[in-house]
Amino acid sequence: MFSCVHWLQSFLALLSSTLFAWGQNCPSICLCPDHHTVDCTGQGLTRLPDSIPLDVRRLLLSNNWIPWIPSDFLVLYSDLVYLDLRNNSLTRLEPGTLGMSSRLVYLDLGSNNLTEIPSGTFGESRSLIKLRLGNNPHLRMVGEGAFSGLTSLRELELERNALSSLDVKVLSQLPSLRVIRLEGNPWVCNCHFAKLFLWLMENRHKLPTGLEGMECSLPVDGQQVSLSMLSEDSFRECRGMLTLKDYLIVIFSGICISVAAIIASFFLASTIHCFQRLKANRTDEEEGED
Q: Distance (Å, rounded) from C-alpha 185 to C-alpha 135?
């Protein structure tokens, strides 16, 4: 009986010390419902809170005024699995800032003031499964390599931003993609949109709202039309058009051919001149012998 009481007292003492330690490590303005969760939702924060436990796995920072993320943030919190930064004041992301974690599975950067997602932003976050980037009203550009390395990404949200075009290579490098949200952007139905449209037709099963839920504006009069009303023939005029990259290749090829022709002409002229001099010398020698 005595041993049971002693064991129970020891257990309660250990539990109390553990709970006390949790309370001590939890930022004063936040809640920590369990040992691996820090909830700072809606606390009016203008920067990341101090004293976040290094072994935190779920960090909730939505509905604050946080304007930036330190470049070494995920280096410090390498156990982080779930990060919610929705509805803050983020305007930009330094390349690689969010690519330092091999365990991050869920990342919400929606409803901020991001203007672009440059290449290399997420580094090699191979564990990332869901990425939310919707409702950034100033987001106009996504770099070609922005999502490079996200081999496990299944859900990508880019809805209700300011995207008028998107390089199809951004999406084709996501082998595990199952859901993509692109509705609510000011897409323009021009030749820059043609390749993306073909990709969307082939992957319409990945669109929660289907092609019916996406619209683009006609370049002539700006009229909004549903993508479901378009077909591959709608962009037939774009098939013979060259892109800027194509033009640069043609110009570079022309320069290379011209340089090669000049060099060949120089060597040919030099060879002919040498033969002519050699022939003249032989003629002089023969006349001298006579």
A: 10
